[in-house]
């Protein structure tokens, strides 16, 4: 019975932090071992009928204090039993969803309350904060109320201090409190480490007993035997753990236990992730082959044997890929491959990076070539436009010269202008100039003759007009 009670206590503690565990008792009856799996849900079903009983003391305390739930400021948990998730759930429901305060050590909360009560009844200590205490046992009510102290209070960090303490005594008290906090912290860390080790041991034992796929499929026979041996040794050691065992020792034992298990878990992870990394490497190789066909037609872009190095890199990786593919096809689940998924990832990454580097180099060369061709085309267009403009200017100039020549042939002034221009330019001969001068003189003579004739005609017209006037005058006189 003692073994059952001890194991039940362990199961309750483990299920407070985990959802399932195994209860195991050696030689429970006539050298028969007892072992069973139990979940948190099963444990909660076992004490569901006691839920109303758990709340009775709380209801009685509130009724005695005449306090409603909505008037409460904080809900402080006391006692190790309040660590059970179901208990916390019931308390939260009872107090209308108020948050439960976990700033006190539940194992020591009752003792701390007793210290407060003793301090209240003592005349030696002063309580800095005001509070009321109500005993929930009707047979012995306390109803102690802390009244405001009239004497001067010491402003120090501690909640409770003796009166008239010297500076040395205060320093010593602080030192003791600091050491106490360190011990408490170490105790909490120890409990957490112990709970973690126990949970791990139970978990591995369960997987071995139930032939779970993670272990059986991916672990070798030697590895499984090693894990089983470690689990058995730790379970025996945990039956009577020395009190001086600290958190570090629990962590070290857990680390040693998980080493072979992590190896199996990694093997499983490699098996699951390997196909995707193989596909990535194959895609990188296919892309590299395609780009190489383009690169080899642009040898002027590459220098220093870059294409040869790239070609060798592709060939080596292709051989590695084919070899790895054959190895994986025949590889058992409980054996490690000669390469890891990290190797595949690194190789595909390096090849992809080299392909991008060469591709960018080709792209840059094409861009430079395109810019040079565009600049040459622009220069040719500008030269052609300039030549065309010069030809048009010459054509305009030639047209103006021809017009001046025609005008000179029509008018004497034009001839004279042409002679002058010819004299300046030296294009006309002297003989042509003499002929033009003679022609001008003839024109002048003709103009004079024409002028004389025109004058004679004007005089004759005047005479005729005078005759008509005289005739009209004669006729007028006759009338």
UniProtKB/TrEMBL annotation:
GO terms for cellular component: endoplasmic reticulum chaperone complex. Residues 373-394, 415-447, 454-479 have a biased composition (Basic and acidic residues). SUPFAM superfamilies: Actin-like ATPase domain, Heat shock protein 70kD (HSP70), C-terminal subdomain. Residues 373-479 are annotated as: Disordered. One of its GO terms (biological process) is endoplasmic reticulum unfolded protein response. Belongs to the heat shock protein 70 family. This is Hypoxia up-regulated protein 1. It comes from Meloidogyne enterolobii (Root-knot nematode worm).
């Amino acid at each position: 019975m003692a073994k059952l009670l001890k194991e039940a206590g362990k199961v309750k503690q483990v299920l407070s932090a985990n959802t399932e565990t195994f209860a195991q008792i050696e030689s429970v009856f006539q050298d028969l071992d007892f072992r069973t799996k139990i979940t948190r849900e099963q444990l909660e079903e076992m004490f569901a009928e006691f839920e109303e009983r758990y709340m009775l003391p709380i209801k009685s305390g509130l009724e005695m204090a005449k306090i409603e739930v909505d008037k409460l400021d904080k809900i402080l948990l006391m006692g190790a039993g309040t660590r059970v998730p179901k208990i916390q759930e019931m308390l939260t429901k009872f107090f209308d969803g108020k948050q439960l305060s976990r700033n006190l050590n539940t194992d020591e909360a009752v003792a701390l309350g007793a210290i407060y009560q003793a301090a209240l009844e003592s005349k030696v200590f002063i309580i800095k904060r005001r509070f009321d205490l109500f005993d929930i046992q009707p047979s012995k009510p306390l109803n102690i109320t802390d009244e405001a102290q009239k004497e001067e209070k010491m402003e120090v960090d501690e909640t409770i201090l003796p009166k008239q303490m010297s500076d040395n005594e205060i320093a010593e008290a602080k030192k003791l409190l600091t050491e106490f906090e360190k011990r408490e912290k170490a105790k909490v860390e120890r409990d957490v480490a112990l709970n973690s080790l126990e949970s791990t041991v139970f978990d591995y034992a369960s997987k071995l007993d139930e032939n779970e796929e993670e272990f059986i499929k991916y672990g070798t026979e030697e590895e499984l035997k090693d894990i089983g041996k470690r689990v058995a040794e730790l379970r025996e050691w945990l039956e009577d753990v020395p009190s001086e065992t600290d958190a570090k020792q629990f962590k070290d034992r857990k680390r040693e236990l998980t080493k072979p298990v992590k190896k199996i878990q990694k093997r499983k992870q490699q098996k699951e992730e390997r196909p995707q990394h193989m596909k990535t490497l194959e895609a990188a190789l296919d892309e590299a082959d395609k780009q190489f066909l383009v690169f080899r037609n642009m040898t002027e872009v590459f220098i220093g044997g870059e294409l040869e190095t790239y070609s060798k890199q592709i060939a080596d990786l292709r051989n590695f890929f084919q070899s790895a593919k054959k190895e994986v096809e025949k590889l058992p689940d409980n054996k490690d491959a000669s390469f890891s998924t990290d190797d595949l990832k690194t190789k595909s990454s390096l090849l992809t990076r080299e392909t991008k580097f060469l591709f960018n180099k080709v792209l840059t060369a094409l861009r430079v070539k395109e810019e040079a061709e565009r600049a040459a085309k622009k220069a040719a267009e500008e030269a052609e436009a300039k030549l065309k403009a010069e030809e048009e200017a010459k054509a305009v100039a030639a047209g103006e010269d021809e017009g001046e020549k025609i005008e000179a042939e029509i008018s004497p002034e034009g001839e004279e202008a042409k002679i002058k221009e010819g004299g300046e330019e030296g294009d006309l001969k002297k003989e042509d100039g003499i002929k033009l001068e003679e022609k001008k003189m003839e024109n002048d003579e003709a103009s004079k003759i024409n002028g004389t004739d025109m004058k004679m005609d004007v005089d004759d017209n005047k005479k005729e007009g005078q005759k008509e006037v005289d005739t009209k005058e004669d006729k007028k006189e006759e009338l």
